[in-house]
Structures are given as C-alpha cells and as structure tokens.
Design a protein that fits this description.
By secondary structure, the protein is mostly helical. The chain is about 45% helix and about 10% strand. The chain folds into two domains: about 50 residues, no CATH class; about 70 residues, Orthogonal Bundle (Arc Repressor Mutant, subunit A). Strands 1-3-2 form a three-stranded antiparallel beta sheet.
C-alpha cells in the first residue's frame, strides 16, 4: 500500500475592491489642459498632485517679483525688497559667479525685458544695506560685488 500525501493548496483570490463598478471611480485631472485620469478619487493626476504646490509657489513668487519690478521702475530703489526673491537671486549669482557689471546682471539675472536703471536701483538698494560693494570699470560701468 503506497501512502500518498495529499497537499491541499488553498488559493485565496481577492475580490477586487472596486467590484464591477470600477469605472465609476475614474476622474479627470482638475489641472487645466490635462486630460489624465486620477487615482483614488483625487482631484489631480499623479503628476499634478506632486507639482501643484510647487507650481503655485513659483507662480506666486513670479507675481511678487513682477510687482516689485514695476514699483522699482516707477519709484526707484526704495521699492526694492532686499530680502525678496529677486535680491536673493542677485546675491546668489554674485556669490556663484563673482563680481558683475550692472550690464551683465541685466542680461544674466533680469532678462532683456528690463532696463539698466532698474538694475541700478537694485544695486543701490543692496549697497545701502551694505550687502554689496559698488565699483567702476574704466569704461564707466558700475561693478557689483558681494560685501
Ligand atoms: Zn494632470
């Protein structure tokens, strides 16, 4: 008589929690111009869920910087927020690349839509707070360097 072991294999199949109505949880991303579906009933697709707070912060910073530029354009260096994003960028740029003429700061930090008098206002404001030193090239350009 041969003894044979009987091995029972229990297979447990999970019933999908969505059941038959899986389609009713499909939702489209709430971000403009995004047609992706979202997961778990969230308002945004996985990509936009991650990026949304970041994007909002960047847009807010940009709006603040644009406001500041406009005020500086109209009213001069007194409108410069020396603790603001734009000044942080200027100081960061100077610490990374060394002394810069205002013309180069205009090109490298402000972009072509600005004019030199705005850069001068920022340089003056930072100079008043002793955060930068101003010098001159032989051609008469103002050189900005970290204090
Ligand atoms: Zn999306």
């Amino acid at each position: 008589m041969s003894s044979s072991k009987v091995i029972r294999v229990y297979s447990v199949e999970r019933v999908p929690s969505g059941g038959m109505g899986a389609g009713n949880r499909t939702r489209r991303c709430a971000t403009d111009n995004c047609d992706l579906t979202t997961r778990e009933g969230k308002a945004h697709c996985p990509e936009h869920v991650e990026h949304l707070p970041y994007v909002q912060r960047v847009l807010r910073d940009l709006a603040l910087m644009e406001d500041e530029l406009e005020r500086v354009r109209l009213f001069g260096w007194k409108e410069v927020d020396v603790n603001g994003q734009r000044c942080r960028e200027i100081l960061m740029h100077l610490s990374t690349h060394g002394a810069r003429t205002e013309e180069r700061l205009l090109r490298e930090v402000f972009g072509s839509s600005c004019d030199l008098s705005i850069v001068s206002s920022y340089a003056d404001a930072l100079h008043m707070k002793r955060m930068v030193i101003l010098g001159q090239t032989t051609r008469g350009s103002t050189v900005v360097s970290l204090a």
